[in-house]
Design a protein that fits this description.
Structural class: mainly beta
Strand content: 35-45%
CATH superfamily: SOR catalytic domain
Largest sheet: 6 strands, mixed
Radius of gyration: 19 Å
Shape: globular
Number of domains: 1
Helix content: under 10%
Number of helices: 2
Number of strands: 9
C-alpha cells in the first residue's frame, strides 16, 4: 500500500509561484519587454568551428558586448557548458571566467577537446540585467 504524505498549504503555494532557474535566463528568443533592448549588448557571442575532429584541441572564444564596464554596471562572469549527445547527465562545465570591472574586458578563449557532437552553451552575468545565454551546435567527426 502506498501512502501519500500531504504537503502543508504554504509549501504548495510556494512551489506554485517559484520559477525554474532556467526561466530566469534571458535569450534572444525569450527576451521580452525591456529585456529586448538588452539582447545585443548582453548575449554572449560564441566563436567556434562548426565541425571539429574527435580528441583534437580547438579554440572557443566567448565575448560579450559592447557593454559598459563600470563598477556599478558590468559583465562579471561567463560560464561555458557542453551538452554531449548520448550522455546520461548533462551539461558538462567546460570553463568559467571572472572579470573585475573597469580593468578587464568580457572576452575569453578556451581550448577544449570533445569526443562527441553536442551543443555549447555560454551563460554571462550582468550585475544589473541578470543572466544571458547563447548556444552553438558543434559536430565532432571521428
Amino acid at each position: 500500500m502506498i501512502k501519500y504524505i500531504r504537503k502543508p498549504r504554504h509549501i504548495l503555494r510556494l512551489v506554485k509561484y517559484m520559477k525554474k532557474f532556467g526561466d530566469l535566463i534571458y535569450t534572444p528568443e525569450t527576451a521580452s519587454g525591456e529585456a529586448i533592448t538588452k539582447v545585443e549588448s548582453h548575449t554572449p557571442k560564441i566563436e567556434a568551428p562548426d565541425k571539429v575532429k574527435a580528441g583534437e584541441p580547438f579554440k572557443i572564444r566567448i565575448s560579450v558586448g559592447p557593454h559598459p564596464n563600470k563598477v556599478e554596471h558590468s559583465i562579471r562572469w561567463v560560464e561555458l557548458y557542453f551538452e554531449e549527445e548520448g550522455r546520461a547527465f548533462n551539461p558538462i562545465l567546460l570553463g568559467r571566467a571572472l572579470w573585475t570591472p573597469v580593468y578587464a574586458e568580457p572576452e575569453v578563449e578556451f581550448t577544449v577537446k570533445l569526443e562527441k557532437s553536442g551543443v555549447l552553451y555560454a551563460v554571462a552575468y550582468c550585475n544589473l540585467h541578470g543572466l544571458w545565454e547563447a548556444r552553438k551546435e558543434i559536430k565532432v567527426e571521428k
